[in-house]
Amino acid sequence: MKLLVVEDEHKTGEYLRQGLVESGFVVDLTHNGLDGYHKAMTEEYDLIILDVMLPDISGWKIIESLREAGKDTQILLLSAMGRIEDKVKGLNLGADDYLVKPFSFAELLARIKSLLRRNSPQVNLNQLTITDLVMDLPKRTVTRSGKRIDLTNKEFLLLEYFLRHPGEVLPRSLIASQVWDMNFDSDTNVIDVAIRRLRNKVDQPFEPKLIHTVRGMGYKLDILDED
């Protein structure tokens, strides 16, 4: 997968480039908007990571120009502006996601993988499974060790999201945006409460435990020896 990073802060840009290369991506890096726009127009990328505040031309203008030119490359906007109005503006201009600075690299990587997965051919599975946990999508049922587990609609969606991303660390903010369709507020514990309730149903009576806390980062669904 080939990515383009447009970031004028040299230290941040190099940090992103190095981390993404180590994560297996081919990465081009530019430090100004015009060079980034030229590369986006003349080369093929799977995803563009675009800073909004650039010294020569804003990320707003770049994304608007790319969409007007018919470029449908997925774009993840980076910005220190975290107001709802700024996020709405970016998404309305054609961005596929919007991440507020400062951010953790783990969350950026999770969002990149999520965006790239949207463009990947999907196998229409009727069931999602891990060990003895089985989710039947058409029937909207969940069983573990053959025992039916009753879930609320939101718990079902949360578990489905975990099952579609096994082994991946999912930050709370990403879970909030993908399952609750809301911006994560660090002062609220809605995500932690929901996951605790889900654990009580799918993990507490069974072994091995599947939903694990990754301290300081989020949660993941995996088969581990211990939490």
TrEMBL record:
Q: What are the residue boundaries of the Response regulatory domain, all occurrences included?
A: 2-116
Q: Which Gene Ontology molecular-function terms are recorded?
A: phosphorelay response regulator activity; transcription cis-regulatory region binding
UniProt keyword annotation of Cytoplasm present: no
The record's Pfam families line, in alphabetical order, gives: Response_reg, Trans_reg_C
Record-linked InterPro entries: CheY-like_superfamily, CusR-like, OmpR/PhoB-type_DNA-bd, Sig_transdc_resp-reg_C-effctor, Sig_transdc_resp-reg_receiver, WalR-like, WH-like_DNA-bd_sf
| Residue ranges of every copy of the OmpR/PhoB-type domain listed in the record | 125-223
4-aspartylphosphate is carried by which residues? Answer: D51
Q: What is this protein called?
A: Heavy metal response regulator transcription factor
